[in-house]
Specification:
This protein has about 450 residues and is of the alpha/beta class. The chain has three domains: about 280 residues, Alpha-Beta Barrel (TIM Barrel); about 80 residues, Methionine synthase domain (Methyltransferase, Methionine Synthase (B12-binding Domains), Chain A, domain 1, Orthogonal Bundle); about 60 residues, Cobalamin-binding domain (Rossmann fold), CATH 3.40.50.280. It is about 55% helix and about 10% strand. It contains 19 helices and ten strands. The strands form two sheets. The protein has an eight-stranded parallel beta sheet with strand order 7-6-5-4-3-2-1-8. The relative contact order is 0.08. The mean pLDDT is about 90.
Amino acid sequence: SSSTAFVNIGERTNVTGSARFKKLVMAGDYPAAVEVARQQVENGAQVIDVNMDEGLLDAHEAMTTFLKLIAAEPDIARVPVMIDSSKWDVIEAGLKCVSGKPIVNSISMKEGVPQFLEHARKCMAYGAAVVVMAFDEVGQADTQARKVEICERAYKELMGIGFPPEDIIFDANVFAVATGIEEHNNYGVDFIEALKEIKARCPHVHFSGGLSNLSFSFRGNEPVRRAMHSVFLYHAIPAGLDMAIVNAGQLDIYDQIEPELRTACEDVILNRDPEAGDRLVALAEKFRGTDVVAEKQAAEWRGWVVEKRLEHALVKGIDQYVVEDTEECRLKAARPIEVIEGPLMDGMNVVGDLFGSGKMFLPQVVKSARVMKKAVAHLLPYIEAAKEPGAKGKGKVIMATVKGDVHDIGKNIVGVVLQCNGFEVVDLGVMVPWSTILAAANENDA
């Protein structure tokens, strides 16, 4: 489904958006800055956006230094880089030191078509995909009609020079809603409807957007911003949004947003009611500062039966109590495997259903998988100890994530279940070429 193919672009390696990252780069503390990138990838970012546009920085120097450093880190280098700058020379410098396929963020027709095509040709020469902003000589596109007009025009120009359509990523401008200005009320709808139309007119292109712009009116109110982002993605992904720049930690599970808040966010984003903005502003006060719902739930769920606690921890990605809860479950169960096949798999099934229906996003699934991993790591010694001495294994299984894919959540879970059921599992890791998989199968007689 469209929701499972959605790509999260990490936004924390951007000096204009992250005060912490900016401080580290300004101080020349690149090892710590690299850790920010690593954290992004660990939290489920599938692309990292790198921006060094700061007046007091030599952006050219900072960009090339940072890109070379992250290229040497296998954990980070496995995801593509989005080279983000408003200065073309910085983008070009970045392109020269990235191996693999980068994404350029961004080019537009703002300075006219000749310059737009010159930049596009250079991107094509480097094999880069490009983010094309819905921006022309007149200005930024705000209405649905303008977004469609500019993107279609840019598409035709790019097709004229033989640019691969699948390497075009349109950013049709996510603007702030609930600003108190009536003309802004339809910005969410304009974006979503424009995607559908552009998709029909411009085959094979992709779509992206900067999520934090949407909730700009609610700066400082994280619960409301998270709810707005999740509601927006829930509606924009089926319309064609393939990727978005998002803070992986700033998303809520759609179904678990407080119902009154969720309805208010939908009324604002889908412009269903002229009073929606005022209603969300009033409601926002209730959520300011502390996440009321989360605090209430945090107090409640620790009192539930242990199986339900484990399931809840998985769905929410909370690893704080997982070892003690897993141990409590193990002591109650006849065999340790029952903890995996019972509450742990129940939790992962909920996660799978939410993810499949677009109500949960990859960064949250990554957190859930970490909790699962921690629980299983606690159980494995007991499972090994329970095996009968000299018992014959059921056979060997080779497991790997194929080359071109870095995801190992499902693989790890299947591997554990197989191990628990008497199979010997040889895990080859991620990004494994088919030749290595075949060689391992022969070598291990699997």
